[in-house]
Design goal:
The chain has 678 residues and is α/β, with parallel strands linked by helices. Helix content is 36%, strand content 19%. The strands form 6 sheets. Strands 1, 2, 3, 4, 5, 6 and 7 form a 7-stranded mixed beta sheet that branches. Strands 14-11-20-9-10-15 form a 6-stranded antiparallel beta sheet, with helices on one face. Helix 11 runs antiparallel to helix 12 and helix 12 packs across helix 13. The chain is globular. The N terminus is likely disordered. Its cofactor is FMN; FAD.
Length: 678
């Protein structure tokens, strides 16, 4: 009753001041609200949140993946560091070989990507006793640093006050003599380090990929290590036995969702695609067109179109598209058969050096089949270090002796390697077939084979006209070797066999864009002279599309001149319809085509250039024309350049030296650009 009475009192006499309750209705409401919010806040805190896990994921990846190579070397007891600038993997391969060599001299080496470290620490290398920095530097394109050495190159250029007087160093450059700027990166690094006070302990080595890069490297290396021994007062340990870098782990009960199936970087990255896309995270582009370009003949020219819709990928005319090919399944199966291996076993190859940044030679865990299909180069003739390491597995002493001989620097050994491996184009499968006593363990073979690299193609389209599509123009590489085997180019054979749909599934190509300096002039009114025989026409298809688009926008466009060359008009005059249409629409103001074999005497693009020298000279000398050359570096690009030297000499009244300098100045000013290969 008490409760009831008090309630009644409260209601019946609300105006009596003495009886006013301690809390008014509004106060009660606000109090309840605050209590409710506090309870809600408290309860929501108690709910399991992804926060702790998020924190775990978010913790910066071991900062001990230090940018400090000095601290890492101290921690691991290393005294030799081999930096590499590598675009196709060879520079990295040579760096690994040199760091492994150090062990034979009682020293400890590590290979390092300059992109991953603070190169400003070179001045601190003297803190480590008997230390040495080796630089394996490849030159890419027109004398450029490789992508991973660009920051290091910039650092060298910008830091004039750097004191590297405590640094011992040597450089081995990787280049190709058919290119204008032969080995310029290796030469620059060697010269620049000396300018900054570093001490060169052995001469600059220059490897020529147009000759025999492997032989150049071995010859340099054979003299380099004795010089190191002399400098540091150490001796070779005489231990030439094989040194394994990775150990095999076979997974018997692995969750297949954790097994790599061909991804380049992140696991499942081909299933869940996330931009930005680059060399470590390629985009899976759908093939929408794959057609044969040539009308007849025994070669196969192809035109592919890759759909990049939704990828946020941007490109410009003149850029390169990089694609990641796979090896032919027939070759992989043959390797499995000859080695008697179950290719579908799930394995990991784990680095014996637990501190190394490179935990595996390729993404692991994976299967042997995936490794040999997606990750390893099984079609190029193996380098001598592979033969040397595999020799121990040959049961025939004669085979063992020959393999070791080929890996030596003796004239007889070099000649044997040149003749039996290189000239005969024997890949690892051919070597195993022709040497029945050689049956290495597949895991050691996988450790030794180099990585399968991306292949670059000049883009044959303009993003102004095709913003969501990238076009590729290529020709199938196919040849018969001295041993009677038919070898096919890995990438071109793979591209040729990419149907638009495959059993109802769309064909895809893992790709990314590599920016180029091969650019149309900023002013559309500048004339352009394009010289591109064969598949060298690729970037010019993009240029022509873009000039046509500019005209459609009502822009004034300068003269657009095309020099194309092929063997026969009725066989391999690729893009004939498109070129003639562009000429008809006045997008191309001049179209000159050289058919080299349609008459008794050979006619090439350089001959047509000479025939039109007056008109060309006016465009170049008076009208500020830009010249573009794309295609073969060994012969065509040199012959075309000679034609321009002749022109400047004859019509410009110059001496040969002046004419050569004139063309060089055009290159320096960005008015003579080359996109060439050998």
């Amino acid at each position: 009753m008490t409760d009831m009475d008090s309630e009644t009192t409260t209601h019946t006499e609300p105006m009596v001041e003495e009886e006013t309750p301690l809390l008014s209705n509004l106060d009660l409401f606000l109090f309840s609200l605050i209590v409710g919010l506090v309870v809600y806040w408290f309860m929501s805190r108690k709910k399991p949140e992804p926060l702790p896990e998020f924190k775990k994921l978010d913790t910066p990846a071991p900062t001990i993946r230090e940018t400090s190579f000095i601290e890492k070397m101290k921690k691991m007891g290393k005294n030799i560091i081999v930096f590499y600038g590598s675009q196709t993997g060879t520079g990295e391969e040579f760096a690994n070989r040199l760091s492994k060599d150090a062990q034979r001299y009682g020293m400890k080496g590590m290979a390092a990507d300059p992109e991953e470290y603070d190169m400003g620490e070179l001045s601190r290398l003297s803190e480590i006793e008997n230390s040495l920095a080796i630089f394996c530097m490849a030159t890419y394109g027109e004398g450029d640093p490789t992508d991973n050495a660009q920051d290091f190159y910039d650092w060298l250029q910008e830091n004039d006050d750097e004191n590297l007087s405590g640094l011992n160093y040597t450089v081995f450059g990787l280049g190709n003599k058919t290119y204008e700027h032969y080995n310029s990166m290796g030469k620059y690094v060697d010269k620049r380090l000396e300018e900054l006070g570093a001490k060169r302990i052995f001469d600059l080595g220059l490897g020529d990929d147009d000759g025999n890069l492997e032989e150049d490297f071995i010859s340099w290396r054979e003299q380099f290590w004795p010089a190191v021994c002399e400098h540091f007062g150490v001796e070779a340990l005489g231990d030439d036995s094989s040194i394994r870098q990775y150990e095999l782990k076979v997974h018997t009960d692995m969750n297949m969702n954790k097994v790599y199936t061909g991804e380049i970087g992140r696991l499942k990255s081909f299933e869940v695609q996330k931009p930005p896309f680059d060399s470590k995270n390629p985009f899976l582009a759908t093939v929408t067109v794959n057609r044969k370009l040539n009308k007849a003949g025994d070669r196969h020219f192809m035109h592919l179109e890759l759909d990049i819709t939704g990828s946020k990928i941007r490109y410009e005319s003149g850029d390169h598209v990089a694609v990641f090919p796979t090896n032919e399944s027939a070759l992989v199966n043959k390797l499995g058969q000859i080695l008697g291996v179950d290719l579908d076993v799930v394995i990991s190859l784990n680095n014996l050096d637990e501190e190394s940044n490179k935990k595996h030679p390729f993404p692991c865990p994976t299967t042997y089949r995936t490794a040999l299909t997606h990750y390893l180069d099984i079609t190029h003739p193996p380098r001598t270090n592979v033969l040397y390491e595999l020799a121990q597995y040959a049961s025939d002493p004669k085979d063992q002796e020959n393999m070791r001989k080929m890996a030596s620097s003796s004239p007889e050994g070099k000649a044997l390697y040149q003749n039996w491996v290189l000239d005969a184009n024997r890949n690892i499968l051919a070597i195993l077939e022709d040497m029945p006593s050689l049956r290495p363990p597949v895991d050691h073979l996988c450790e030794l084979l180099p990585r399968l690299q991306a292949r670059y193609y000049s883009i044959a389209s303009s993003s102004k006209v095709h913003p969501n599509s990238i076009h590729i123009c290529a020709v199938l590489v196919e040849y018969t070797t001295k041993t009677g085997r038919v070898n096919l180019g890995v990438a071109t054979n793979w591209l040729k066999n990419k149907p638009v749909t495959d059993n109802g599934h769309k064909s895809t190509v893992p790709m990314y864009i590599r920016k180029s300096q091969f650019r149309l002039p900023f002013k559309a009114t500048n004339p352009v002279i394009m010289i591109g025989p064969g598949t060298g026409i690729a970037p010019f298809m993009g240029f022509i599309q873009e000039r046509g688009w500019l005209k459609e926008q009502g822009k004034e466009v300068g003269e657009t001149v095309m020099y194309f060359g092929c063997r026969y008009k009725n066989e391999d005059y690729i893009y004939q319809e498109e070129l003639e249409e562009a000429e008809k629409n006045k997008v191309l103001t001049q179209l000159h085509v050289a058919f080299s074999r349609d008459q008794e005497h050979k006619v090439y693009v350089q001959h047509l250039i000479k025939n039109n020298k007056e008109n060309l000279w006016k465009l170049i000398h008076s009208d500020n024309a830009h010249i573009y050359v794309c295609g073969d570096a060994r012969y065509m690009a040199k012959d075309v350049q000679t034609a321009f030297h002749d022109m400047a000499e004859e019509l410009g009244g110059m001496t040969r030296t002046q004419a050569t300098d004139y063309v060089k100045k055009l290159m320096t000013k960005g008015r003579y650009s080359q996109d060439v290969w050998s």
